[in-house]
Structure formats: structure tokens, C-alpha cells
Amino acid sequence: MITDLQAIHDSRASFYGKAKIETANGIENLISYNTVVATKKDNVITVKGYYSPTTARHINEYLRQSGLAGISKKEMETNPKITL
Question: Integer distance in angstroms from the first to the last C-alpha of the chain?
Fold first, then answer.
């Protein structure tokens, strides 16, 4: 199943279909501009790096909707694994 990421915590009204959440087999992928940029599996979110300022907004919105704080560009570059 694929759904659009909603802009709830972000100041933008919408991400205009550029950020999506794909759910299958117990794994949730955050897709930004057709690239998987974060994965949630077994209560662990893995961020797959820093791509662009807009994709960073998508990642931080996804983290905030998961009950976490946003992270910086430097933190994204380390490919963090964040436990919920």
C-alpha cells in the first residue's frame, strides 16, 4: 500500500505527492522523489543519508509523525538507526 506523506508538522500545506509511504510485509519505506530515504522495521527507523533540503524536510516530517524529534543534516549523513 502506498500513501502520500501528509504535511502535519511542516509549515507547507502539502508535499504535492513528492513524499510517499509504502507499506508491505511489516516494513514501511519513506520514498522521496522516487528514492527510498528511510525504512521502518521492528520499531527501528533507518535513515539512508542526506539527499537535499526538501528530502530532509520529508525525513523530519516522517520522524515527527513517528513521535521522534527531527534530526540535522549531519545526523542524516551518518545513516542513523533510531529506535521508537
Answer: 22
d(CA 51, CA 73): 9
Report the C-alpha gap between 4 and 16 in whole angstroms.
Answer: 8
Task: Give the range of the structural domain holding residue 15, as residue numbers without chain letter.
Answer: 2-83
Q: Which three cell numbers stand for residue 45?
A: 527507523
Residue owning grid cell 542513523: 80
The count of domains in the chain is: 1
The alpha carbon of residue 4 and the mean position of all alpha carbons in its chain are separated, in whole angstroms, by 11
d(CA 59, CA 8): 13
What are the strands of the beta sheet with 35-41, ordered from one edge? 2-4, 19-24, 27-32, 35-41, 44-47, 81-83
For 17-56, what is each residue's pLDDT tens digit? 999 999 999 999 999 999 999 999 999 999 999 999 999 9
